TrEMBL record, chain A:
The modification FMN phosphoryl threonine is found at T175. It comes from Tahibacter aquaticus. The chain crosses the membrane at residues 21-39, 45-65, 77-98, 118-136, 229-249, 288-305. It is a multi-pass membrane protein. It is found in: Cell inner membrane. PANTHER family: ELECTRON TRANSPORT COMPLEX PROTEIN RNFD, ION-TRANSLOCATING OXIDOREDUCTASE COMPLEX SUBUNIT D. This is Ion-translocating oxidoreductase complex subunit D. The keyword Coiled coil does not apply. The complex is composed of six subunits: RnfA, RnfB, RnfC, RnfD, RnfE and RnfG.
TrEMBL record, chain B:
This is Ion-translocating oxidoreductase complex subunit C. It comes from Tahibacter aquaticus. Residues 356-384, 395-424 form the 4Fe-4S ferredoxin-type domain. The complex is composed of six subunits: RnfA, RnfB, RnfC, RnfD, RnfE and RnfG. Its EC number is 7.-.-.-. The gene is rnfC. Residues 439-460 have a biased composition (Basic and acidic residues). Its main location: membrane. Residues 521-532 have a biased composition (Pro residues).
Length: 338, 532
């Protein structure tokens, strides 16, 4: 007689792990990281490194406080993903404490106070970004024009010592979205605005390439079946439809639909943030609705809100609505009437 | 017939080296065979033999006590040498009393009278034959075939869509014994008066399809239908969904929509039982996995120990890490190999250490929805899991927990490696137990109510009887008084007095009755009339 250890079915080895999922998402962010670092300087890489260190510290402290194994929690790479997403949202020469405050809030409060990965209601990176955007609007507007040639030394100085480069006034530039808002407020016509170099080929010089890089990474994730196609389809489809409708009605006053996607955070949201499984919807129709909701709210905030870009707020609002959407979009179970 | 693809499901590849090759090999007759006196589904069997008795192959050893009384036939000739405890192939791993049959090596067979003219015989007789021959569903559940064939249906489906990877016995059977499958299909079709008989097999089973096609050439009653190779296509409800583009309503059986699904091996066994008069004493079992030296499909006698079967397939390799009865997705991990193979056992897997999952790697659900995407029943496994963890079994049931077919697709794809299906299985049996308790309580309450009503009725009858008796006596006394020409005593008085004396006599009579009853040891069937 030979004895064996028993275990519950299924017996086949697992097909994937949370760590693997997160690692692939990080991998899919690489093109966008590369493009953004090339356009806006090596500060981004410093921010990412800083964010990763801070996230590791905050995450392991939080796990320790919750009586869990820090190593196991860190190994799922979810905190790393939060750190990278946050770093991609803030200006590359943002002071270091912005990251500290943001990640402390995002990971410590939004994620772990709710029970950690899987139980958090809100996307930690977006919550972190929304907080610092509200608290420190000045630091969060330290953007340059694309290819402004900030070097590593200048970036480090700005980040850790808070010293902006001497030539800052010539380097600094509003983002396309805030310029758009300002100019539209000054009664510029849309076609005139589009003539400005800041608005590039499709609506945001430089930013449009980053958006494209997000789309490339996102397509990879959809192909790998890590991101459900419904989310990006909802965000992008609704943006094009709504933006297009407004533009068709009055092209003098409304930006072209592609311009909505080219500038700001909509592409990041579409492929990486709204597609975050934990804080999004799980049913297929729910995911489509979630994506549409993010797009509609973003456009509404851009149009009527007090911030040039409202993607972070839109995502957080939809996070809050997700459980309700899921409730009403459950598919019909086999053998049950509708 | 339109083919509908089931939602979700998995496309699974099997490591080629570990998959059984498909020639039928014979597992030599072991010296001893073990037949648990408990069915696969847990009910006790009625033993019909005694220790020391000799039996021939095919003779009944026990039966299930159902209306049809499906028997457990002796798998070979020999002597019953003991009834001893043996671990049951059940999640409980309970030890149950088991008949031990010492083979005499002669393999003498007791045949039932062959019924080659089955087409002229009534379904009832054929069902009785299947019960006498011990034919049960060979797809895994081992449910008595006779009981499942009790209703007429319009469509009979012979299920050859092997459910899980590694399992090859049905495909092998269809390839090597196509004629038996087809002939059996015709018999089962006759029993349930099916208008349409379909043999369903997977797209990948080209050789089996060719073999069946060759047998089916020129005949029209039985059709062949290839279905997609996706797990769990072989599930009864999934197969009906694909073939009929209809869903079996929740809580109902396929027969409720006029469909009956039987395994192809059951059909072949039915043919043997009816046309040859052979009882079901062996079946094809596939042996697979990296943990065994020569995987293959074996013809195995009922009651063979797994130990013996593994020896016949070259023994264990060093990699042997988990012993599974059934497939890798739904199979049962066994604690050891001294367990007998029953008629429902279609596969024995010895998985290598690299081919199993380590337990306890479970993390929190990240709501990725992979489980929902894989669920063939379109449940939201992540939601069920959350509810069950909060103890909300009722709510989980409202979201369809009972519709879960326990296929394990959800748990297989879950990146957080949550043992979802295990949780559902436990919750479902808890629900079933609760329902059973409720049923029993209701039953008891009904009985209690019925008893109270009966007592009340009896009491009322007694009162009425006494009253009518009084009436009679009173009348009788008045009559006598009148006859004695003593008109004076007030009738009221007489009426008053007489019952009082009557009361007394009634009590005495009751006491006498009680005594008589106690004296008469077995109470006579009709209670004697003592009221005079
Ligand atoms: S597959 Fe696992 S982690 Fe993903 S939603 Fe389902 S239960 Fe949660
Ligand atoms: S085990 Fe149940 S919940 Fe899981 S996939 Fe199968 S039917 Fe769906």
């Amino acid at each position: 007689m030979k004895t064996f250890a028993t275990a519950a079915a299924p017996h086949l080895p697992p097909r994937s792990s949370v760590r693997q999922v997160m690692a692939e998402v990080l991998l899919a962010l690489l093109p966008a990281i590369a493009v953004q670092a090339w356009l806006f300087g090596p500060g981004l890489l410093v921010q990412i490194a800083l964010g990763l260190l801070l996230a590791a510290a905050i995450e392991s402290t939080a796990l320790h406080l919750r009586g869990q194994q820090p190593q196991a929690g860190l190994a799922d790479l979810s905190a790393a993903l939060t750190a990278v997403l946050f770093a991609l949202c803030i200006p590359p020469i943002c002071p270091w404490w912005i990251s500290a405050i943001g990640l402390l809030f995002g990971l410590g409060l939004v994620k772990h106070a709710y029970g950690g990965l899987g139980l958090n209601l809100f996307n930690p990176a977006m919550a972190a970004y929304a907080l610092v955007l509200l608290l420190y609007p000045r630091q969060l507007s330290l953007w340059t024009a694309p290819l402004a040639d900030l070097d590593l030394g200048q970036s480090l100085q700005a980040i850790f010592l808070g010293q902006l480069p001497a030539s800052w006034d010539t380097l600094a530039s509003a983002t396309p979205l805030s310029s758009l808002r300002q100019l539209a407020g000054e009664a510029w016509r849309m076609p005139q605005i589009r003539e400005l170099p800041l608005f590039g080929h499709y609506g945001a010089a430089g930013w449009e390439w980053i958006a494209l890089a997000y789309a490339a990474g996102g397509c990879y994730l959809v192909w790998r079946r890590i991101v459900a196609w419904q989310v990006p389809a909802g965000v992008i489809g609704a943006t094009l439809l709504l933006g297009g409708l407004a533009w068709l009605i009055d092209a003098e006053r409304h930006p072209a639909p592609l311009q909505h996607l080219a500038g700001g955070g909509l592409m990041l949201a579409a492929w990486f943030v709204a597609a975050d499984p934990v804080t999004g919807c799980t049913s297929p129709r729910g995911r489509l609705l979630f994506g549409i909701g993010v797009a509609v709210l973003s456009l509404a905030i851009r149009r009527w809100g007090s911030h040039p870009d409202g993607v972070a707020f839109a995502v957080l609002l939809m996070n809050a609505a997700a459980p309700l959407i899921d409730r009403f979009t459950r598919p019909r179970v086999h053998g049950h009437a509708r | 017939m339109s083919l509908l693809r089931i939602p979700g499901g998995l496309v699974l590849a099997v490591p080629a080296a570990a998959a059984p090759s498909d020639a039928v090999r014979h597992c030599p007759l072991p010296a001893r065979l073990y037949l648990p006196l408990v069915q696969e589904r847990g009910q006790a069997l009625h033993c019909r033999v005694q220790v020391g008795q000799t039996v021939r192959r095919g003779e009944p050893l026990a039966h299930d006590g159902d209306t049809e009384a499906t028997v457990v036939p002796a798998p070979t000739s020999g002597r019953i040498v003991a009834i001893e405890p043996l671990t049951l192939a059940h999640a409980s791993a309970l030890e149950v009393p088991t008949l031990v049959l010492q083979a005499d090596g002669r393999d003498e067979t007791a045949l039932l009278p062959p019924l080659p003219d089955w087409a002229q015989r009534p379904p009832q007789e054929l069902r009785r034959r299947l019960a006498q021959a011990g034919v049960v569903g060979l797809g895994g559940a081992a449910y008595p075939a006779a009981a499942k064939l009790g209703r007429a249906v319009s469509l009979l489906v012979l299920n050859g869509a092997e459910c899980e990877p590694y399992i090859a016995c049905d495909e092998t059977l269809m390839r090597s014994r196509a004629a038996e499958v087809v002939a059996g299909a015709a018999i089962l079709g006759h029993i349930v008066a099916a208008e349409d008989v379909v043999i369903a097999l997977e797209e990948r089973m080209t050789e089996a399809a060719a073999a069946l096609q060759a047998v089916l050439a020129g005949q029209t009653q039985i059709r062949l239908q290839r279905v997609p190779t996706v797990y769990p296509q072989g599930g009864e409800r999934q197969l009906v969904q694909t073939l009929c583009a209809r869903e079996v309503p929740s809580g109902a059986y396929p027969a409720d929509i006029g469909v009956l699904v039987h395994n192809v091996a059951t059909a072949a066994a039915a043919w043997r039982a009816v046309v040859l008069g052979e009882a079901l004493t062996s079946r094809l079992v596939s042996v697979g996995g990296r943990g065994v030296r020569q995987p293959g499909v074996f013809e195995v006698r009922t009651g063979t120990l797994i130990e013996h079967l593994i020896d016949s397939s070259g023994g264990y390799t060093e990699q042997a890490a988990r012993l599974v009865l059934g497939g890798p997705l739904m199979g049962l991990a066994l604690p050891h190999d001294r367990i007998a193979l029953g008629r429902g056992a279609n596969s024995v897997l010895v998985l290598g250490a690299d081919d199993v999952r380590a337990q306890a790697a479970q993390t929190e659900c990240i709501r990725c929805g992979e489980c929902a995407r894989a669920c063939p029943v379109q449940l939201q496994p992540q939601e069920l899991w959350r509810l069950l963890r909060q103890g909300e079994t009722g709510q989980a049931a409202a979201l369809g927990l009972r519709d879960c077919i326990e296929c394990g697709c959800c748990a297989f794809v879950c990146p957080a490696q949550i043992g979802l299906v295990d949780e559902y299985r436990a919750a479902k049996s808890a629900l079933a137990i609760a329902a059973e308790q409720r049923r029993r309580a209701d039953h008891a309450r009904q009985r209690h109510d019925a008893r109270n009503q009966r007592l009340a009725r009896e009491q009322a009858a007694k009162v009425a009887r006494v009253a009518s008796r009084r009436e009679e006596i009173a009348q009788a006394q008045t009559a006598t008084a009148n006859a004695a020409t003593a008109p004076e005593p007030a009738p009221a008085e007489t009426a008053e007095a007489a019952p009082r004396s009557m009361d007394k006599s009634a009590v005495l009579a009751a006491i006498a009755r009680g005594k008589a009853k106690r004296a008469a040891a077995p109470p006579p069937a009709p209670p004697p009339e003592t009221e005079s």
